[in-house]
Write a structure and sequence with these properties.
alpha/beta, tRNA (guanine-N(1)-)-methyltransferase, tRNA_m1G_MeTrfase_TrmD, cytoplasm, EC 2.1.1.228
């Protein structure tokens, strides 16, 4: 099953990068097809205007609804279809999580609506909710200048989970933020040379003793999680279960 990804933006060139790297390979073997669109193609004035001043006053500019509506009509269609997932990256969106990426990895179609300026006229989101499955998502508690970088990050998180995309699916199981690691942070990784600039690989990892190695790795995951992400630990006991 091919996943179709569409990107609506006034900077569609952001998405040229999707033609290379891992994603390029997925596109080549037909797992994923990528279409980037310039929102200004759905404007009709000489200046190809996509923004206007905010009703009610305030700083900055707001993206007009009209170009979005016309782009939706052409790119997605005019009939409701809950199988189409429409993503609006937004600083006021719900935190994007690995489980959201997991869910989206089985979608047939995802349309990313990348806002700029202070954001998009809210009626665009309301209209989209009446037609498709809408996700307003935030990447984290920091402000970007637009939705494009968030769309790229979400794309990578989703596409790498599409069945048949990753070379060795086992590597997906062991990752942080996935059930395989009990929601703990990943332990430190090492490879050859065993000694590098006076720094050595922990001896236990060279012992060949799989039980000790597994224990060392879990202890490290617990230590790192408690140090860096106390929010991921179970507050009742203070240590991840
Ligand atoms: N996690 C995130 C997501 C975003 C994001 C997503 C889309 C847009 C469209 C415009 N802006 C700029 C902007 C600046 C100030 C207040 C509102 N928006 C965006 C920012 N920032 N951080």
């Amino acid at each position: 099953m091919t996943m179709r990804l569409d990107y609506l933006s006034i900077f569609p060139a952001y998405f040229d990068v999707l033609d290379i790297s891992l994603l390029g390979k997925a596109a080549v073997n037909g797992l994923v097809e990528v279409h980037a669109h310039d929102l200004r193609d759905w404007t009709h004035d000489r200046h190809r205007t996509v923004d206007d001043t905010p009703c009610g006053g305030g700083a900055g500019m707001v993206m007009k609804p009209d170009p979005w509506g016309e782009a939706f009509d052409e790119i997605i269609g005019t009939e409701p279809d809950s199988s189409v997932h429409v993503i609006f990256p937004s600083p006021s969106g719900a935190p994007f999580t690995q489980s959201a990426a997991q869910e989206l990895s089985s979608a047939v179609r995802i349309v990313f609506c990348c806002g700029r300026y202070e954001g998009i006229d809210h009626r665009v989101i309301d209209y989209a909710r009446s037609m498709w499955t809408v996700h307003e998502v935030s990447l984290g508690d920091y402000v970007l200048n637009g939705g494009e970088v968030a769309a790229l990050a979400i794309t990578e998180a989703v596409v790498r989970l599409v069945p048949g995309f990753m070379g060795n699916p086992e590597s997906l199981a062991e990752e942080s933020f996935s059930a395989g690691q009990d929601g703990l942070l990943e332990y430190p990784l090492f490879t050859r040379p065993v000694s590098w600039r006076g720094l050595d690989v922990p001896e236990v990892l060279m012992s060949g003793h799989h039980g000790r190695i597994a224990k060392w790795r879990r202890d490290e995951s617990v230590r790192l999680t408690c140090e860096r992400r106390p929010d991921l630990t179970d507050s009742d006991f203070g240590v991840p279960h």
